[in-house]
Amino acid sequence: MKKKIWFLVLLFIFSVSLFFFYKQHHKPFPQTKKISGNGCLVLNYHRVRSGNALVKFLAKISGNPELNTYTVYKDDFIKQISFLKRNGFYFITPEKLSAYIKKKNIPGKCALITFDDIDRSVFNNAYPFLKQQKIPFTIFIITGEVGRKYFNGLRMARWEEIIEMQDTNLVTIGVHTHKLHYIEEGEKPPFLKTKNLSKFIEDSNQAKKSFYAHLGYEPKYFAYPYGYGTPKTDDVLLAQNYDLIFTLSPGIVDANSPNFFIKRILVDDISWEAIKKWINND
């Protein structure tokens, strides 16, 4: 009984501390309530945490976006991917998606699974299941924060773990900036301000150098922190030979989607219900 009480106390403290951190540094991303159109479903996840019914309940009532909007629990994640498999979806890579876009021909029932930030929860809770199922997936790493034991309240995956995932030949690795994953002055990420374009260029160069130093090849895919960039940052990335640029603008990727504005659906309870309705009405 005492262990349960201490567990609840620690969970409460953890939830409250994250709440105040994210209230200061993050804004909850608008939830996706309706999906329409035909094309490829690109899913986005951040954290895949372990948790029982009680943990989920406490997370829900906390109102903390980190524990709701940016977290999917392991059992729910497995159910979601299994649901897609049962409904005839096949899972693709960014390389395949790029080829579809170039040919202006995107088949139905294709899905691309992506993860941003890449803390230890992705390695510990999502990767083993996807490996066992032989499902390809994509991770977008913050190259300057890899291996950090404390980054915005997260314990980040190490380079050795990222390389282990890559060595399965199931994982595509992209960039999520080098050191620009933060909100400036409680408003917006720094790269959205025109005056900071040179800072974005420098950061992008650093990301590519770090990526190459650890992985031995140039990155081809980029995902914006907080969901989107600007036409000028798009131009920078395209000039650096990025093949696809991923956003968090919700929707389906179709044959007319530009390679610099790939839509993704941030998966939470509400958006997952919208995904199921879209599939069942197809």
Write the layout of secondary structure elements.
Blueprint: H1 2-25, E1 40-45, E2 47-49, H2 53-62, H3 65-68, E3 71-73, H4 74-86, E4 90-91, H5 94-103, E5 110-117, H6 120-133, E6 137-141, H7 159-166, E7 171-175, H8 197-215, E8 221-223, H9 231-239, E9 244-246, E10 265-266, H10 269-280
Parallel strand pairs: 1-5, 1-10, 2-3, 4-5, 5-6, 6-7, 8-9
Structure description:
There is one protein chain. This protein has one domain (2-25, 39-280): Glycoside hydrolase/deacetylase (TIM Barrel, Alpha-Beta Barrel). Strand 4 (90-91), helix 5 and strand 5 (110-117) form a beta-alpha-beta unit. The strands form three sheets. Strands 1, 4, 5, 6, 7 and 10 form a six-stranded parallel beta sheet that branches. Strands 2-3 form a two-stranded parallel ribbon. The protein has a two-stranded parallel ribbon with strand order 8-9. The longest helix is centred in the first third of the chain and has 24 residues, at 2-25. It is built from ten helices and ten strands. With 282 residues, the chain is an alpha/beta fold. GO terms for molecular function: hydrolase activity, acting on carbon-nitrogen (but not peptide) bonds. One of its GO terms (cellular component) is extracellular region. Keywords: Membrane, Signal, Transmembrane, Transmembrane helix.
Biggest sheet descriptor: 6 strands, parallel
- Uncertain runs are 13-25
CATH class: Alpha Beta
Q: Per DSSP, what share of the residues sits in E-state strands of 2 or more residues?
A: 5-15%
Helices and strands, in N-to-C order?
Answer: HEEHHEHEHEHEHEHEHEEH
What's the total helix number? 10
User: What do we call the CATH homologous superfamily?
Assistant: Glycoside hydrolase/deacetylase
Counted beta strands? 10
Q: Give me the secondary-structure category.
A: alpha/beta
